[in-house]
Amino acid sequence: MRYLRYAFLGTLGVILIAVCLANRDLVTVSLLPDALGELIGVNFAINLPLFVVILGAIVLGLVIGFAWEWMREHRHRADKSKAEKELHKTKREVRRLKGKQAENKDEVLALLDEAS
């Protein structure tokens, strides 16, 4: 299974390198369309190789997706934390009740009850 993963990663690396080499031409990336940029007074544009734009868009999409999922799953993490606190509280209560129950018993019987 490990070799299959290495083969996949190697193939993916070769494909990405081929895409990068095939798309080395410069493209202009603008913040806003020209007419809107002139109207507002913000005309930001930069020349980048096309492969940088493609790989940057992929990375940006992954980051946005991970952040979106992390925010979406907040409720699940909060529920899990609440359940763990309640479980811990219940375990303490059971331990306390077993301690009260063991006060009237023989020490050997109390130890056997704790073990089970």
From TrEMBL:
One Pfam family per UniProt = LapA_dom
Its GO CC terms are: plasma membrane
Query: Is the keyword Coiled coil assigned to this protein?
Result: yes
Q: Which residues form the Lipopolysaccharide assembly protein A domain?
A: 23-94
Q: Where are the transmembrane segments?
A: 46-68
Keywords attached to this Swiss-Prot or TrEMBL record, sorted alphabetically, are:
Cell membrane, Coiled coil, Membrane, Transmembrane, Transmembrane helix
Instruction: Provide the coiled-coil residue spans.
Output: 73-107
Q: What is this protein called?
A: Lipopolysaccharide assembly protein A domain-containing protein
